[in-house]
Amino acid sequence: xxxxxxxxxxxxxxxxxxxxxxxxxxxxxxxxxxxxxxxxxxxxxxxxxxxxxxxxxxxxxxxxxxxxxxxxxxxxxxxxxx
Amino acid sequence: xxxxxxxxxxxxxxxxxxxxxxxxxxxxxxxxxxxxxxxxxxxxxxxxxxxxxxxxxxxxxxxxxxxxxxxxxxxxxxxxxx
Lengths: 82, 82
Fold this sequence. Notes:
Two copies of one chain form a homodimer.
Chain A: E1 3-10, H1 17-28, E2 34-47, H2 53-67, E3 73-81
Antiparallel strand pairs in A: 1-2, 1-3
């Protein structure tokens, strides 16, 4: 099924307590080479047909102003997956 | 910064009420070509140095049994981003 994948992450200068908890836990399990963990969202938009260039541009626009909160999050990628 | 990206999605046969709400909302805004929305997680593991093949295998293992809940979620991708 054709999809657009929108990836959203908490801004780099923002605390991510959930990620911090996972990082601490992985460190305690012995994975000390992991310096930090950040947890964001992966949003799949499903389409019946492969999205057009115009639909991708539309998705980029509403990814920034509807699917993410610009105050605390960054859209890191918007990609078509056929 | 070198990273391993773990992507986790709710299983296909599972209801995703949050995704359903976003899909309805996008449909009401006129994006009727979007048939469904699913919302999962994007987990970034940060490393000081580019992860080795062995570290990637380790990450795949704990992505499946620690970072995701196999009853309701699938790990869809574990990739290195240098």
